[in-house]
Each structure stands twice: as structure tokens, then as C-alpha cells.
Amino acid sequence: MKERLLSLVKRDGSSSVPIRDWTGASGQPTKLHGFDLQLIWVVLALMALGLVMVYSASVALPDNPKFARYAPTHFLVRHALSILVAFVAAVIVIQVPVNVWEKFAPWVFVAALLLLVLVLIPGIGKGVNGARRWIPLGFTNFQPSELAKLAIALYAANYMVRKMEVKENFFRAVMPMAVSVAVVGLLLLAEPDMGAFMVIAAIAMGILFLGGVNGRMFFLITAVLVGAFVLMITFSEWRRERIFAYLNPWDEKYTLGKAYQLSHSLIAFGRGEIFGQGLGGSVEKLHYLPEAHTDFLLAVIGEELGFIGVAAVICAFFWLARRIFHIGRQAVALDRVFAGLFAQGIGIWIGGQAFINMGVNLGVLPTKGLTLPLMSFGGSGILMNLVTLAIVLRIDIENRQLMRGGRA
């Protein structure tokens, strides 16, 4: 067992310190860092770059009559405050043992469902650009779909632990989870927020697959979900138009319509070339590219920092997702199945949402309203990203305690 755990730690070069053995000559446990410092530094680097780029992308917005009453630093200050609140929440959350999250996972899921219902009620939910996705809290707005991503990861991991003995039975193991995801999906599509539903479906399916659900069942669920997305596109004219615009963004019919954001995003990447136009040198952010500080932040990074900047962001997210998966595998090896499945579900969330956002910005995927995790402007997203990563760090801390011979 000792050799197996050693190999798990050695296998990934991203550990905070090199580890050869857990005991010294005296037989006492050797000292380790209590958490993964490299993961923290990568997260801080992404957030710092995000703060700078949010300011760069939003500094000219007050020139627009819609934002005329805002100061040039309005979004910078709001984003910095969101990060501060998120850090405080993360420090609190990291104190909570993982078994507490396992115990209350179903209740977190129920709370997320209630908020998804509340946001649809006129007078409670706030509508922006035809979508009702936010609950006003006075000083800020909260987006329940961000909590739903955390809730589905907790619930799916808890569900698989409870159903481990019947995971080969479709009706007892898979059907209840499929119904839960379908309910969340219906509430999100009523907002509408198809992008969040895609991420939540990916998290749930990923955890079911990693939990050992029969491969045939997994592919059956995949086929049903793909079929559902095809039907939604087929019977929704505006979604159909988005697909056609994505396939041919330079068509005169779409360039000034459904493909307006995509065409200007591609122009931004083209202007950036290898080394970019320099920080602050973006032209597309000057009221050409809508939502430049949220959904299309990567396009501004591409224009100002070029291919080098975009490649650095992609590599950072790849490393982060890989490291989170490694923490999850360590937990599973230590017989902490809930913790392991949850961590890997978060790897799917962070990596998958980053992939979708980057794909949309680069024209690889149809346009969806998903932010770039840890970087884009948005208080709810930053808050839930850091809270989630705090739980992952807690899992890593408990893994290391167990490997030192202690208790989680």
C-alpha cells in the first residue's frame, strides 16, 4: 500500500515538494506542505491576469450611453471586490471537512433547485437581454446556475457512493440521476441558459462514468442528451439561426446579426497575431465586440497579448484541470470515493467550461453565454469557482494527512 501511494504522488511532477518517503530515520512522519502550492499559484496567476484584462476590456465602456454613469474603473473595482469576497468565502470553506459536504450534498442540491425556481418568478429574478438568470441582492446579483454546478457535482458524487452496489442496474442507478439532471435542465432552459445546462450535464455524466456506470448505459445517456440538444435546436428558430451563423459567420446575412460577436472575436484574434498589439491596444473592445469583459475576454487577450498570451492561458487551464484530476485519483486510491469523484467532477467543470468558452471565442463552437472561469467579470462565477477550488484543496489536504499516517 505504501509503495502504491508513493507512486501516485511521484507520478505527477506538480506536487508541492518532492516526496520519497513518509518516514525519516527516526520513524517519525516527514514534514510536507499542507496543500498544493503550485495549484494556488496557477489560480492566482489566472485571476490576476483576469483582473488586468477585465479592466482593459471595460475601460472604454463609459463612452457608451448605456454605461455613461459608470466610471472607467467601475468594472475593475467591482471585479476586485468580487475576488476579495470570494477569497474570504474560500478561506471559510477550506476549514470544512469533506465528510460534512458529503453529508449535506442532497440539501445543497435542493437549495440550488429552489433558487433556480425563484429566479424565474417575476419580481424576484432579474431579466437582462431577454434572459432571467440573476437574483438581485442589493449590492450585487447572484446567479443560481453557478451554485447549481457545485450542487450537481456534490450530489452526483454522493449519489454514486450510495448507489455503488447497484451501478450496473439502469433503473436503480442511472434513471434517478437522469431525472434530477432533467429537472435542472428544464429550469435552466426556462431562463434560458443552455450553456450552463451543457456544463451541468457534462459534470453529472462524467461523475457517473468515473463512478463505474456500465459503458452501454453511459453511451445510451449520451445519445439521449445529444438527441435532446438536436431537438431543441430543430424546434427553436433563434437557436437554429445561431448554428447557421456559426457555420458561416462572414455571410452578409449573419455578420451584422447572429454572427456579429463571433466575426468581431475572430477579427480580434487576427489582429493579435503572435505577440499582440500590446496591453490596452485592442480596437475591438471599443464598442465593436459586445460582452468583451465577460464571455469574450479571451478575444481581447488574443488581440492585446497575441498567440503567446492565449497559449499561456490554455496551458494554465490544461494544467489546472489535470492537477484537479490527479487530486481526485489520489483520493480514490485512499478509498475516499466521494472526495475523489467530486474532485474529478470539478476538473470536468473547470476544464470543460474553459474549453467551451475558448471554443466559442475561436469560432470552433457555436456562440454560448459562458464565461471563462476565474478570469471573466462576474461575481457569482468567481465566488463559486473559488469556493469549489477550496473544497478541492481541502480534499488534497486530507489526502496528505492520510499519507502521513494521520486522519482526514
Automatic annotation (TrEMBL):
Name the predominant localization.
membrane
Compartments reported by the entry: Cell inner membrane; Cell membrane
Q: What is the E.C. number? A: 2.4.99.28
Pathway(s): Cell wall biogenesis; peptidoglycan biosynthesis
Q: From the record, give the transmembrane residue ranges.
A: 39-63, 75-98, 104-124, 170-188, 194-211, 218-236, 296-321, 333-356, 376-397
Keyword presence, Cell membrane: yes
Q: Which domain of life is it from?
A: Bacteria
User: What EC class is this?
Assistant: transferase
Does Transferase count among this protein's keywords?
yes
Q: Which UniProt keywords apply?
A: Cell cycle, Cell division, Cell inner membrane, Cell membrane, Cell shape, Cell wall biogenesis/degradation, Glycosyltransferase, Membrane, Peptidoglycan synthesis, Transferase, Transmembrane, Transmembrane helix
Instruction: Give the record's family classification.
Output: Belongs to the SEDS family. FtsW subfamily.
**Function of this protein?**
Peptidoglycan polymerase that is essential for cell division.
Descriptive protein name: Probable peptidoglycan glycosyltransferase FtsW
* Organism of provenance: Piscinibacter gummiphilus
